[in-house]
Amino acid sequence: MIRKEMIAMLLAGGQGSRLGVLTSEVAKPAVTFGGKYRIIDFPLSNCVNSGIDTVGVLTQYQPLRLNTHIGIGIPWDLDRNHGGVTVLPPYEKSDNSEWYTGTANAIYQNLNYIENYHPEYVLILSGDHIYKMNYEVMLDFHKENNADVTIAAMPVPWEEANRFGLVITDENKQIQEFEEKPEHPRSNLASMGIYIFNWSVLREALVTMSEQRGCDFGKHIIPYCRENGRRLFAYEYNGYWKDVGTLGSYWEANMELIDLIPEFNLYEEYWKIYTKSEAIEPQYIAADAVTERCIIGEGAGIYGKVYGSVIGPGVIIGKDTVVRDSIIMQNTKIGENVVVNKSIIAENVKIGDNVELGIGEEVENKLNKDVYSFGLVTIGENSVVPPGVKVGKNTAISGETTAKDYKDGALASGESIIKAGDRI
Amino acid sequence: MKALGIILAGGNNSKMQELSSKRAIAAMPIGGSYRCIDFALSNMSNSHIQKVAVLTQYNARSLNEHLSSSKWWDFGRKQGGLYVFNPTVTSDNAWWYRGTADAMYRNVDFLKRSHEPYVIIAAGDCVYKMDYNKILEYHIEKKADITIVCKDMPVGEDVSRFGVVRMNEDSRIVEFEEKPMVAQSNTISAGIYIIRRRQLIEMLERCAEENRHDFVTDILIRYKNMKRIYGYKMEEYWSNIATVESYYRTNMDFLKPEVRKYFSNEPKIYSKVDDLPPAKYNVGSEVRNSLISSGCIINSKVENSILFKKAFVGKNCVIKNSIILNDVYIGDNTHIENCIVESRDTLRANTYFSGGDGIKVVYEHNERYVI
Which of A19, A61, B57, B244 fits as disulfide partner to B10, beta carbons 3.0 to 4.6 Å? Predict the structure, then answer.
C-alpha cells in the first residue's frame, strides 16, 4: 500500500477576473511572474522544497496553459513513480456531473485521489500567491499542538486589517473566532488560505457538507469544524507573502523584484524556485542599449533603453525604444522608437513602431474601473498594436487591433479595446 | 534514423592551457549557456538518432555531471538512449583508451549488439549545427565506405592543427594528412564521419590486432586508397575550440547577430537546465554589445563580452572583450580586458587583469566571503 504522510491539493481553477485581459485566455496560476516564472511555480516549488512529493492540481478555468506547463512535473522533480504531480480537472460521473462549484467541493470530487495515498494530513494550497514557505515547519506546528486543522496566518498592519479574513486566537494560538472583513478588527492575523487538515477530519467534513452548493473552505468547512469542537490552530507566518490578485498588486510585486536587495529574493541558493524554461540561450544587450534597474529573462534581445522593468524570456525591444516601469512577458516583440510607460504587456504581443503607451492624464476606466486602474496600460496576450498609435492610462487592449480601432490614431485614457467574442 | 551516434569526448589539448585542467574540452562552456558537447548531442537528437554513446576519458567529472541526465536532449527513451563509456579495467586490458579507435574497439560489444546499419562518429569539441540525415543520404548516394564531413577554411587561416584533405572532382578523398607541417589545401576534416556499422567493427578489430589505436591515422589515412572514402563539404558555421584562441573566437562569434540567430533558430541546441533566476541589472550597470546569462547580477560596465551563468559584477568595474565563465564573483573596481575568467573564480576588489594583445586565462581561487 502506498502511504504518504502529507499530500498537497493545489487549487488552480480560478480565473482571477480582477487581472482583466491578462486572464482572458489563461487561468491566474498560469500568468507569468518575475520574468520567467508562472504564479503556480511558487507553491509547487515550496512543495518540493518542503519534501512534499505528491501534489494534486485542481484545474477548471482555461487549463491548457497550466496543463502544458505542468506536464508530468519534470521541472519540479515531481515526476515520481509513486505520487508526483497529477492534474485533476472536473470529470463526468454516473449520477451528478458538475463543475467544481467551490474550493471544498473541488476537493470533495477528488476524494478518491486522496484516498489512494492514505495520507495522515492534507495540505490545501491556492495557486495565486507569491511566497516562500516551508510547509514542513507548519506540519510540525500542527503535530505539536495536536491540532485537527491548522491555518496559516500572517500579521497585517492594523489599519489594513479590515480588508482581510481574520483569526482570533488565544495565547496558545488556538483559534477562538473568525472575523471576515470586520469594521473594528480585534486581531491582525489574516488567514492566508493555506490549511493543514487531519485527513480523517477533512474527509468527514467534506462528506457531511457534500450537499452544500458551492462548498468553500472559508465559508463552510472551517466553520463546520469549529462548530464540531475540532482543535483549530493558527500558524503565524512572518515571511514575504503577496497576493497578486489585482493588476496593481501584480505590478507592484513584480517591481519589488528589481530593488537592489529585494525583500523577495530569487537569488538565494537554498530555496530555489523551479519553472519550465523553454529558452536557454543568453540575452543579448546591443551596443546602444541601456539596461538599468531591471531583470531580464533568457533569450531576450534588448536594442533600446529599459529602466525599472521586468522583461520576460525571448522578448525583443527595438532600437530607440524606451521602456519604463513595465512588465513585458515572454516572446513579446516591441518595435522601434516606441515609448512604453507603466504597462503590463502579456505574452506574444506585437507592438508596432512609433507607438506610445501610457501617456496623458489619468482617467477612470469606463469598462471596469475596479480592474483597470493604477494608471496602467494592460495588453492581453497575442494582441497586436499597430504602428504609430498613442495609448493613454488606465487602458486595456486585447486582440489583433488595427489602425481603424484607434480614433485619430489614439486610445484615450480610460478607454478599452477588447476584440474577439470570448474575451472579457 | 538508421544510424547510431558516437561522440568522442575524451580529448585534451595542451593548447587549452589552464582551461583544460578543470575539464575535458567537450565540457567547455560555449556561447553563454551551452557546453561544447551540447552541439553534437543536440544535432543527433534533432536528426532523430535514438542511441548515442559518449566516449570519455580525460578529466570527465564536469562532463559526467553535465550528462547525469539524458532528458535534456530527449534521450531518456526505452528505445536507445544515452550511454556514457569511461575506460574501465577488464580481465584482459588495463590500459586507458590509447586512441580514438581503441576507445571504440573497447566498446565494440555496444556496436555489435546494436542493429542500426550506420554509425555517425562526431568529435565533441566542435560547434556547429547539422542534420546528419543529409550526410547519410550523400553517403548512400556515393556508395561510400566512409564519408568525412569537410570544411573549407578561409585562406590564410592556420590549418596545421587539423586533418587536411584534398578531394578529386568526384569528392573522393585522395589525400589526407593529419596536422601537416605545410598544408596542401585549406580543406579540413570537421571530425564528423559516417561509416557502416559492420565495416567499422571489422576495421576496429583489424586495428586492434595490429596494435594500432588511432581512428584518423590508422583507419582513415591507412585505408584511404583501399576504401571509398568521400568528403562532404559543409558550408554552414563550424568551429573547433581546442585552442585558447579558437575557444575565445568561437565564443565571440556569438556576439554576431547572424551566428546567434543561426543557433537560436529551430532546430534548437539543448542543454542541461539550471534553475536560475533572470539576470539582474542594478543602478550603475552599463552593458553594451554583450551576452548575459541567467543568474547574473550586474552593477557596472560590461562591453563586448560574454557573461556565463551566475556571474556577479561588483560596482565600478570595467569588463571589456572578455569571457566570464560560470559562477564567477568579481569584486568592486576590477578591470578585466581581453581575458577568459575561469569558472567559480573569485576576483578580489581593486584588481587589474589584461590580456594585452593576446588573451589571458585568469585562474584565481580566493576565498569568497560574500553571498
Answer: B57
Q: How many angstroms separate the CA of residue B293 from the nearest CA in chain A?
A: 4
Residue B278 has what DSSP assignment?
Answer: P
Q: How many CB atoms lie within 10 A of CB B356?
A: 8
Among B357, B360, B371, B364, which residue's Cα sits nearest to residue B343? Answer: B364
pLDDT at site B158: 87
Min Cα distance B255 → chain A (Å) is 8
Q: Look-up: residue for cell 568522442? A: B8
Q: A19 vs A36, A422, B233, CA distance in Å?
A: 18, 16, 55
**Looking at the predicted complex, does its ipTM rise above 0.95?**
no
Q: Name chain A contacts of B308, Cβ cutoff 8 Å.
A: 282
pLDDT bucket at A160, cuts 50 / 70 / 90: confident
> Position B304: which residue type?
N
Interface of B with A (CB under 8 A): 31-34, 71, 255, 260, 263-264, 270-271, 273, 275, 277-295, 297, 306-308, 371
Q: Cβ of B32 and A282 within 8 Å?
A: yes
Chain A residue with Cα closest to B270: A280
Task: Specify the pLDDT at position A421.
Answer: 52
pLDDT of residue A420: 67
Backbone dihedral region for residue A156 (phi beyond 0: left; psi -120 to 50: alpha; all else: beta): beta
Query: A291 in contact with B at a CB cutoff of 8 Å?
Result: yes
- Per-residue pLDDT for A15 more than 60? yes
| Average of per-residue pLDDT values in chain B | 93
Q: Which of A75, A293, A296 sits opposite B278 (nearest CB)?
A: A296
The pTM of the full predicted model, rounded to 2 decimals, is 0.92
The pLDDT score that the predictor gives to residue B328 is 95
Which residues of A fall within a CB distance of 8 Å from B255?
284
- Which of the four pLDDT bands, split at 50, 70 and 90, describes residue B167? very high
d(C-alpha A303, C-alpha B254), whole Å: 16
The cell for A40 is: 503556480
In this structure, are strands B329-330 and B346-347 parallel, antiparallel, or unpaired?
parallel
Grid cell 576495421 in the structure block, residue: B203
Please report which helix (H) or strand (E) contains residue B205, including its range.
Answer: helix B197-209
CB A334 within 8 A of CB A370: no
Is residue A159 within 8 Å of A218, Cβ to Cβ? no
Is-contact B255 B306, C-beta < 8 A? yes
Whether residue A68 lies within 8 A of chain B, CB to CB, comes out as no
Contact B50, B56 (CB under 8 A): no
Would you state the pLDDT for residue B370? 60
Q: Is the peptide bond before B267 cis (omega within 30 degrees of 0)?
A: yes
CA A134 distance to own-chain centroid = 18
Distance between CA A39 and CA B169 in Å, rounded?
61
What is the share, in percent, of chain B residues with pLDDT greater than 90? 82
Residues of A in contact with B294 (CB under 8 A): 36, 282, 297-298
